[in-house]
Amino acid sequence: MGRMGTPLLLLFSFLASAYCNSVPVINMALVELREDLKLGEVAFQIIASDPDNDPLKYGITGTDASYFNVNQDTGEVKIKSLLDRETKDLLQVEVVVNDGVYADVTKIVYIPVIDANDNAPVFRGLPYNVEVLENVAMGSELFRAEATDADFGTASIVSYKIDEVVPNEGAELFSISATSGTVVLVGALNYTGKSPFYQIRINASDGGGILHGENKVQSTAAFAFITVKDVADINPQFLNLPNFATIAENSDVDEPVFTARAIDPDTGVNDKILYSIESTNAPDLFQIKEDTGVISVKIKFDREELLDIGATVVLRIKASETHHNVDGDIASTVSDLEISIGDINDNGPEFYECESDTCTQKNSFTGKVDEHSSAGLSVNDLNIRVKDPDQGQNSRFNLELAGPDKDAFHVSPSSGLGDSLVQVTIRDSVAVDYEKKTVMYVEIIAKDASADFTSTASVTININDINDNFPTFKEEVYNAEVFEHCEDGTFVATITATDADALDDGKITYRLMPESMRSLFDVYGNNGTIYVKKGSRLDWEGTNSYSPTLQALDSNNQTGSIVVMIDIMDINDQTPKMNREVYEAYVKENNNFELQIKAIDGDKPNTPNSKIQYHIVDSFFSSNFTMDPNTGLLKNNGQLDREAMDPLLKGVIDLTVLASDMGTPSLSSSANVTINIEDENDNPPQFLDPTPKPFHVKESERGILVGSLLASDADQTDLNNRIIFSITDGSLGSFILFSESLSEGYRGNITVDPAIELDYESDRKTYNLKVEASDLGQNKATIEVQVIVDDVNDTPPVFPSGMILNVNENSSLPEPLITIEGKDVDTKHHLEYELISTECQCNGTKGPCPEEWFKVERNGDVKAISSYDIDYEKCDKVFLTAMVVDLLTEKGENSTEGDVTINIVDINDNAPEFIASQDFFVVVIEKVDTGTSVARVYAKDRDTDEKNRKINFKVTEVIFIGSDRNFTDDFLAADSPAQEDAEGIFSTHIRSQQSMTNNKKGKYMVEVEASDGVFTSVSVVELLTVDSSYRVSLRFNAPVSDVNENLAKIRNILTSATKATVEFFSVYPEDGAQRADVTTVVEAYFVFRNGTALDYDAVTSILNSEEVYREFGYQLTELGFTGISTTITESGGVKSEVFIMIGLMAALAIVLVVTTTSLVCIRRNYKRKLKAAKAMNSAATVVIQNQKTGPVVPGTNKYTKEGANPVLNMNIDTATDLGFDEDGSSADRESLNSLDYNIDMTMTEKDTMPMMVIEEEEEEEDDDRSGSLYIEPLGAALAQREKKRDTDSPGLTFANPSINTTDL
Prior knowledge:
By secondary structure, the chain is mainly beta. The protein contains ten helices and 91 strands.
């Protein structure tokens, strides 16, 4: 081919490609997306295909396209805005595809939004507040919680449960239906026994669903508040029963004994309580007041008559409510009060004979005793007891003997308490002589120790005759002592006897008499040691001495006896007993108070064990009272002032008093003393602020509150501390005053009379009010209050204008930079400042600031934020929009906005920065002369100001590194001044100051300094030296101008191919003339960083290699590259075989491309023609009903009659015309195949029948699959048209924009 052949082939290939091109097809109509897709997540892929495999561009349009982002190159669609099914469940977008040849292909795609469980249930009808009677039946429905869920399916099904009930014990009282939300009472309520209030947290949960790939159950909680209302369903309750009380016998009628107190536990009802005596073990002794519960003596009584009930009367007290309860009954309760009857000494001692537990009163007794019995020996067979029915010390009695034989005997004990065993013992054993008297008589006289009561009993003593030889003791009476309540086995005394008979030596045994004594004491029979047998029964308070007889028996059982006087020594085992457990007294404040406290101790009188001392237990009020330690008289210590007490005490003082004996250890008992201090109106009201500040009131506001005065009355009862306020002077009818109660006193609220408007502009701007506070006792306090009428603040503040300041970057700045000073004409104003927004001018553009450099304080100070560095190179201006606010504005606008402009002043704060242009520079030795540029360096300073960013370069050091030696040189210098380009980059040439010699082969390390006058930077430039032996000539079939224009591309290709740095030496035409069609020679060096270089052979070997040619040969050929030579003088050395090889290969490649393209297009066009021919044959056999004719429309492909092919009424022989007509245009041929392309579809009024679009099967390029079933487009269309003909169907036409009349 000639030079015209190649363009023709390229044109032919282009036309063939255009003729074969088809429009893309969108293969999707519906996409389902979940609403929980996240922002940026892939939603779907646009599915489209192009039969020609042209690259496609994708897009989405339509009202719902804002939800998505589309990758134009890949068709990948991502979420841009979150989807929400509940807002919109069906989206519609129009998918756009373009193959770069035809117009956009669009198709509507419907996107149903699939539900995700992204909504929690929402409660309806809140709040749930319910009041319930406490006796409501279990199972009752209290209320219904209702919640809905906007989701779909199971995620919208709401179930309910109770999460928590407060208080916790209420959790068992309520249940909720999981499906309906009905809350039901499942336990019994109780206003007093349980909580009167319940808080229920109800949880509504949906049925769960998928959210972000996980099954998620959403839930919401709501609170229900149930208030329980009290009903009368609880019986009264006693506050102080059961209890104990004491009353002395023979007390006066109506003397109070005890006050029963009961309450109605139904605190919401609080019914009145009535009292009565339900039953008693001693009727008619006591009575009770029905309304107060005071129990008093009904008749006088004797304690000794009540001993059969233990001198304790039990009263069953009944408390009844006044009204009927919920069951229609009168609720009541009962409890016991035990009243102990106190004793007085009204009985004397009496004599008794007791057998077992039965005692019979007697006044004569008979006993017997052996003659000459030892003194102290008890008379046998006497069973005498003396009893005094009185209690305590009132039962103490003394015993003595009388009668004819009183001197021979002794009575024991000499005294007793209450109940005592009495013995008659021998005092004079000589007088007891059977030979003188066989019967002896004595009288025992019992006298009350503290009253004039006496009893006498006669005792007959029969004397027994005995032998005279008996054991004898050294003493007739032995005395011993032992403590009461001692341990069993305690030693008392060892007493031995002797017998004159030698046979009785060592055979004497001992025993104690009488036998009844052995229950308390006993003696060891072999040695006469007496010990305590039952120490727990030794009680000084019962019997203080014992006189057992110690008998010594010889071998013939002859007995010698002595009396052992055992005194029981008292220990402190009796605790003092208070007469009352609780003392209660009432006294008015400011009066004196006295109360007698009394206690008794049962230990031995007139000993430390029975001596009682009284004192007050330390407490908060104990210092306000004194108590006589000996008498127990309780008095006030100083004045009793009700107001000095905590009001919460309600005037009640509780003390605890102790009664302690002086024994060791000391024993004590206590009693509670309740003292009620009754309030008196003895305090006047007092203003809490005696000198109040003036009140200010705004003009023109009716009924406004002016101010409040607080006053209190120290009295503690409502009757005495209630305060009434009034204005007595100065109001002039403009003010009124209301009183209200507070926890700390009373408040008087002064307000403007609703009928009056105060006027600041009038003559009266100040009122002096005289306010009086008085209580119900006419105690008064007066105060003066000043009311000032104020002007209204209704003018907005003014922001100062023209606020501009300069701030140096990266510098220490003053604090503050400037202060905004707004103006306000109102008399009272308080201005504060607030930063509204910040904008910056960065790189000449005004917009948001990258960093917040400044702030505005509330006082207007503009300050720099120290955490950021102000950098002119980032932004050179900052615009602050601030607002001044008047906090005291009452009407209208209270703020104004304004601007503060801050100019950032550039300072020299950045050092120059070198910009690397290439790794090293190649220096051709023979090319370097004086002034020759061997390298170029670039640098930039980030400072913006001209004087701060200007850079000067200087060569500071040059070091030559050769193969044999290194040395320093100074033949290089930098140009000055440096050059600046449009981007602010400074550059300079490094120039040689002399010619270079060929012996300097190696590399130079050149140190270059860049300075802006303040900062300097240093960079090292490498210069590699080469000589002409490494010069390679490259030949290009192109003008010098074209080669120079493409030098950068040529360098990049050669660098990539050889991996060396390419340095061009010269570019010139081969014959020296500048013609359009010439050979241009480019001389170049191929140098490596290590200083080595490629010569002609090495470059030729690399460029002719198959691998390099396959990758870079086409690119070099496009740039006109034809071959390589060593130098321009060696023209005969040009290797023409290289050019021939490259030319042949290029031509062969072009021919193959054109041939392949032509064959493919011819084959496809041939198939289309065959299809069209078959379609026309099919159309000829179809019987067309109601065929319409019409005029031919020149220059279009519209139908001229139904069933016709859009061929403009031209007769075409489909059997012979296969589309190889050279004279016809490609548009003509395309018109025959209009059914193959769905290019455009419009409605026409000419045709009422729809044209069915039959999608053509994708043609297979593989010949092996050409035999597959093929659908005839036109035949199928006509068949469907006959089948689905409908007179009401709209007509459709197809227009092919590729056909025009010019082509025809």
